[in-house]
Specification:
CATH topology of the largest domain: Jelly Rolls
Distance between the termini: 41 Å
CATH class of the largest domain: Mainly Beta
Shape: globular
Helix content: 25-40%
CATH architecture of the largest domain: Sandwich
Largest sheet: 8 strands, antiparallel
Number of domains: 2
Number of strands: 12
CATH superfamily of the largest domain: Cupin
Number of helices: 7
Structural class: alpha+beta
Length: 313
């Protein structure tokens, strides 16, 4: 018997008492790093993920908090500027913010029509413990598909009813876990050149930013996911997506990490960038596997030696 439908929340997944995630290992192996799929979790009532505790967290975080009004258009890229044109980060785009501080915004999130990202919350020891526990629960199946799990990060998203997060992409592996409220995601196929062509990827890895150009025709190359509390979705690396919240305040936990797969992709694009600046015309990643392997060899050796040293220490 094969894996369940990827967008069906697994009902009979591994869910030993005390575990935070419920995983269908067949589904994980079949779809991880390839296409979105749903998981379930037991984090809805977790004390670290309730709004009063998140207000306290916002007051103590050293990392900047990203927050904007929630009524911006899905597309935030000036396509006339071209793939390598104007910077495409949420910050550089200068999207309007509520006339409130970050802490005031999260405290008034029900009425201020905003969305915010508490980034790298594991800088707080309690959230660091939570992140380690979650990572340990899916480390084994993740390593089978994309070895070299590294630099894990936890971000928490708190959003007003109806708020929209514009179309953007992340290069990391990603699980988005819904804690409170609901949201709808449209996740485009990042492997499809009609969604994300090579020039756009090259610009991204040159540092142009995470925002991606959007138009309605991309919906035919997208999957649409409705998340309720207790559900989560895997968003593969470099799969652009946009998000709209439901009718209540939404709290979501994002778990992101790198692997040999994501590190190799970044490395190849950045090596090519250096070669192009030197006046050469290297093959695009994926066109010549032998050339890619040679370019990636130093990185491959470095990452394997680092893992060997870590396990032998």
């Amino acid at each position: 018997m094969g894996p369940a439908s990827p967008l069906q929340t697994p009902q009979n997944a591994s869910s030993a008492e005390g575990r935070l995630l419920s995983l269908d290992h067949d589904m994980f192996t079949a779809y991880f790093d390839r296409q979105p799929f749903k998981i379930s979790h037991n984090l809805v009532g977790h004390p670290l993920l309730q709004l009063p505790r998140l207000v306290e967290l916002a007051q103590s975080l050293s990392s900047p908090i990203l927050y904007f009004k929630g009524d911006h258009a899905i597309n935030q890229v000036d396509t006339a500027a071209g793939p390598g044109g104007a910077k495409r980060t949420f910050v550089d785009r200068k999207l309007a913010r509520p006339e409130l501080s970050a802490v005031e915004t999260i405290a008034q999130i029900e009425s201020c029509r905003a969305w915010m990202q508490l980034r790298d919350v594991a800088s707080d020891p309690e959230y660091a413990t939570l992140l380690r526990t979650i990572i340990d629960e899916f480390r084994v199946p993740s390593e089978r598909v994309a070895p070299g799990l590294s630099a894990p990060r936890a971000d928490i998203f708190v959003s007003s009813p109806g708020a929209i997060t514009p179309f953007h992409l992340d290069e990391e592996h990603n699980f988005l876990l819904q804690i409170r409220g609901s949201k709808k995601l449209s996740i485009a196929d990042g492997f499809n050149a009609a969604v994300l062509d090579r020039e756009s990827l090259r610009a991204y890895f040159r540092g142009s930013g995470e925002l991606a150009p959007y138009s309605e025709h991309l919906e035919q190359h997208s999957v649409h996911v409705n998340l309720q509390p207790g559900e989560g979705v895997h968003i593969p690396p470099c799969h652009p997506h946009w998000v709209q919240n439901g009718d209540e305040v939404s709290i979501s936990l994002g778990i992101l990490w790198f692997s040999d797969v994501t590190a190799r992709r970044r490395h190849l694009y950045r090596v090519n960038d250096r070669l192009e600046r030197a006046g050469l015309r290297p093959a695009m990643p994926g066109d010549r596997p032998v050339s890619d392997a040679m370019k990636a060899l130093p990185l491959t050796i470095k990452r394997r030696l680092r893992r060997w040293w870590h396990h032998s220490a």
